[in-house]
Amino acid sequence: MASKLKLQPNPTFKFKVDIPVPGCEAVPVEFEFRHRVAADAYKFYGEWLARDEFGGDGDTEMLYALIAGWDIEEDYSRDNLALLLANYPAAGQALVDGYLDGLLNRRRGN
């Protein structure tokens, strides 16, 4: 029997995001994202696009509010997220795109 749709979705969902690695192929990592209602998700995306500073603490804070966990050897924390963003400069946009892909159930690839 097919599962029934719930009007109140789970508070989090998991989605694999391809983290770009300079000089190598992207590495798929499973992230656990916090669910947001449509209006809040679009507001977040607008704020992401409108930010004045790229990288640094602002990006860490925005993404920390979005991500609940990850499948990386190191524990998920604000400091480790900042380290990920510092070492992999394209990771921030990949995470935002991955979040929206997962939330909106967008298909990737062919």
TrEMBL record:
Classification via Pfam families: Phage_TAC_4 (PF08748)
Organism encoding this protein: Eikenella corrodens
Protein name as annotated: Phage protein
InterPro entries: Phage_TAC_4
Lineage start: Bacteria, Pseudomonadati, Pseudomonadota, Betaproteobacteria, Neisseriales
